[in-house]
């Protein structure tokens, strides 16, 4: 009997082997527990940071009190970006998942009809318009609920700044000045995690080379070049200069080690993503720290890297009852009071209208993001393959002490090599 | 009647579960994998086209792929050399140990019990936290940072961590090989006045050749397909200095939307392993005592 | 003459003991650092990485265990390892025996070469197709993983066992056959016993693989934390907690602990089992 089913499975597979295309109709089999009307859906949540996970856990617990017949099973895995891609590739799409709607990868998923259109859902209107405007897919529709914004910024140790009477720098010259003050007092001015150079590269490039991402996108299309671009040259020199004020072991340090070091007062400043905030708070709840945008030559030319954080999407391949349950959950999440609670717990700035952010030290940065120059993450403009390859190029520039001119040449080469033909 | 039929087909039935499972979960997967390498599938799109050998041609022209092949080759050579030499020395040492042999063997086999992920995470911490202390204490500039931070040293550091674990099993296999040498031969050698080295060269070594072949084949495959250590320790960096093919395949498949290309890379790896193993086994057959 | 041998012997013995001692330090040193630092707070570790902990502070352990699922992961890993070993035992020796005794027949020789070919296939080739097959069969769960491990264990198992069985004398089997034993009886009551040393070697090697594997569980068991194994837990901890490295050390230790306990209890058998199979193989 068993053997027979196995054989028939093989027969089916062999047949599909001949026809090459296989596996069109598979559906995730999550809801096999047929008890009553309880719908259980998997929620593939990409952000592994403990603070964010526990915020979701709390909110889900509240949700299940109100909707006892829907079970949201949050699932956070190692290497989530790759696992999610693998699941799309195998047609095993989680019914509810977080993803990055501004990225080209996401738009590719939308184009292939994998993701449910949420444009007509009333709760979409609860999202801050500015951020909503960053997320439409190529067809103009909204395929996700953006839930928080993120940013790259300089976090500074408030006590160290006060003790050494250093003011928050608003220009690059002031930033270097401040670094010199700390250096002269034997305090590491800037703790850099150059093992994970990626986000440092993104933050510095966007801060020091306004319009740089668009230039690189042109190169990817086969137009123009970075070599000889004076703005990029300026960026390269500043990036090198930053490393002169950094910790000696910067190239061996990962982003998490940086968070740990900063939390323990080992450095005056770090360049960190908003995602680092929760970890720093967990590592040292008593640390007073604030944030400001990484300044360029003048306050007017300063641009902060800020974008939409992981947003929530629903699989278009999910069963109707799973979609229904997922929608109910999104509707719940979009309530201002729920978003507020989530934001308070996770430390992530919510972009649901009607929420406020209670951290006076971070407020100046958020105000800047609201009113100043902002640029999105690179992979909204460039294919992620190019972006990640540029990390290696940047590492090479810093570690091998290449000249800025060589670095720009290498950027050109990397982009051309990885551009989609 | 029925039992007679059963008796006659016992052997056949014995092969059946294995053949079915192997076909379904292995051979078929290999077939599909090779098939994908001839398409332009990006991993997400719902359809794909057959593009012949164009992925292979692209790889041939891709300096990153060549660089990755070179890194993989260096990795494999260092791993094989390190594992073979160390495990042979350890096996000889352990085998001649009279006291505490069991204890020493247990310690030496301990790393084989632990997962590559855990080992890599531990060494990552040690590299960051201990090496700079050594660098400061003895004022060695190269050790101011974790060796994983240097494009020059990172690969060696990753291989060292891999060797730390990979030596255990070959050592045991070598010990087994040493124990298969009849002790009369040693007696005879001793009476003839052969030196320690000559005894090793002419008595021990021929008996070890089969085990050397086994260990070599295993180590070469482990070196060429390595993934876990480099991925956990460095993710391929810095500056791609540890970007072994295993990592390149994984990133291309699941991150860079180049799924078909990743499969072509894997197929090339397959061919390389097949050729090397074939040569190895041929060479191994030439000499040695069975 | 006599003297010269003894001198050589002494020099060698000193060298040998030195080598072994250094090796033991290199192996146990990292373990020692993991253990002592897991018992410290972050602050204390910052003051002295190599110092013994001031007091036995198990709060890291308590916190790790309070985060829930540790025992679940231990159980999953155990279940998958044992289940897969059962699969290995069910399908490996049978097919190896059939092949070894029928190599002259076309079908069996084909099966042999067919399975051996797998030795050359790097995992990366089958990584995604395999995931796809498992999805289509709704087998993205521990049971599916066990079936997979069974199939993937065949290349090494057949390679080692066929050689081993072919090296065994036929006389006992022939005698048994004359006594009227069926092939199955011969297999069950004679062959299985005779190949035990090699089987033990195989089981140990496979068990270590199943227990410590990372990639396949990541691809097959990512649907729910309920399915996770220890290596997944371990890797995940990297993103969740590594800003607190004494906590990370605790997680390393906890991830290793079950297998080290098993090892401590059975190291004699494990090592003897591996050596035994290797001698005869």
From TrEMBL, chain A:
Segment forming the signal sequence: 1-23
This protein's record includes keyword Aminoacyl-tRNA synthetase: no
SUPFAM superfamilies: Periplasmic binding protein-like II (SSF53850)
Pfam families: SBP_bac_1 (PF01547)
Cytoplasm as UniProt keyword: no
Domain of life of the native organism: Bacteria
Record-linked InterPro entries: Bact_solute-bd_prot1 (IPR050490), SBP (IPR006059)
Keywords from the named record: Cell membrane, Lipoprotein, Membrane, Palmitate, Signal
UniProt protein name: Extracellular solute-binding protein
Species in which this protein is naturally found: Paenibacillus paeoniae
UniProtKB/TrEMBL annotation, chain B:
Residues of the ABC transmembrane type-1 domain: 69-280
Transmembrane segments: 12-38, 75-94, 106-123, 153-181, 202-224, 259-279
Domain of life the protein comes from: Bacteria
Keywords: Cell membrane, Membrane, Transmembrane, Transmembrane helix, Transport
Coiled coil: none
Keyword presence, Magnesium: no
PANTHER family (alphabetical): ABC TRANSPORTER PERMEASE PROTEIN, INNER MEMBRANE ABC TRANSPORTER PERMEASE PROTEIN YCJO
Similarity-based family: Belongs to the binding-protein-dependent transport system permease family.
Protein name per the record: Sugar ABC transporter permease
Organism taxonomic ancestry: Bacteria, Bacillati, Bacillota, Bacilli, Bacillales
From TrEMBL, chain C:
Gene Ontology biological process terms in this record: transmembrane transport
Top-level taxon in the UniProt lineage: Bacteria
PROSITE patterns xrefs: ABC_TM1 (PS50928)
Entry's transmembrane regions: 14-35, 73-99, 111-131, 143-165, 186-211, 245-265
GO cellular component, one term: plasma membrane
Family note: Belongs to the binding-protein-dependent transport system permease family.
Name this polypeptide is given: Carbohydrate ABC transporter permease
Species of origin: Paenibacillus paeoniae
